[in-house]
Amino acid sequence: MQIRGFNGFSYADVAGELSLTTASLHYHFPGKAELGRALITRYAERFNAALAGIDDEGGDAPAKLRAYARLYADVLRDHRMCLCGMLAAEYQTLPAPMREAVIGFFDENETWVEGVLAQGRDEGALAFEGSPREAARLIVSALEGAMLVARPYGDVERFDAAAERLLAGFAET
Question: Which of 18, 20, 99, 120 is exposed most, by the fewest CB atoms within 10 A?
Answer without folding.
Answer: 18
